[in-house]
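Below is one protein, fold included:
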Amino acid sequence: MNAIVPEVKQTDPRPADSSEAPISYRPMLSEAAVELCDLTKRLGTRAVLDGVNLAILKGETLSVIGGSGAGKSVLLKHIVGLMKPDRGVVKVHGVDVSSGDRQALEDARRKIGFCFQGSALLNSLSVFENVALPLREQETLAEEEIRRRVEEKLALVGLSDAGQKLPSEISGGMKKRVGLARAIIRNPQIILYDEPTAGLDPVMGTAINDLILDMQKKLTVSSVLVTHDMSSAFRVSNRIAMLVKGRIVKLGTPAEFKASDDPMVQQFIYGESEGPLTRPSA
């Protein structure tokens, strides 16, 4: 199923690049966890996202692939509300989180866990305290309940004995696991991963991929991965979306990507140096 949100229609004759032009959106998918409709974002003179239409279905893992500067991380930041679109809509479980409604955004963020590319651990805090931090800052819980939840999540990612270690005392792969434990500490329904295997050797990268699969199975979450690691995308994804110059150029299953004869897809998934992705623009 290619669950791309149907194309939008303008309701007035003003130019398509006018960020103030009112838009009439067709109904989106009822089974979608996250919906992006006509998502457009410019940074300076460059359109980082250029009318992206995409739906992430409930319970699926979708990987967004593309080269550096394609707009992958910017897309994630829009889902979690760290950036506001110039045009278009972001919905989380049917609620518009891009409208400026602060309460709607905060409610949506409670449903989302974010795994940062570099894990973003605080070096002065133990593993336990890093994972506990969202609970201490955003919840009102007894210390006993905080301990129970942190120990539960550390066990889930295979770090039951690492709670008292500092980030400087653990490996890169363990830091990724700590970051994931912190991302799921508030029991999110959606997990966003920013380059989850970046900087890891192939063995540890596979271990992180297996952990992502395990999280989807045990927690029944919807997941969005931003990655340029095709082995990771093929291993964990139900579907893959390829982003080139701010636009989705292909959406499909891993098998459909492998079978594609699209020159851009072939160049990217096989890491070829020559092709349309590296050819100078006319």
In short: The longest helix spans residues 202-219. The first strand starts at residue 9 and ends at 10.
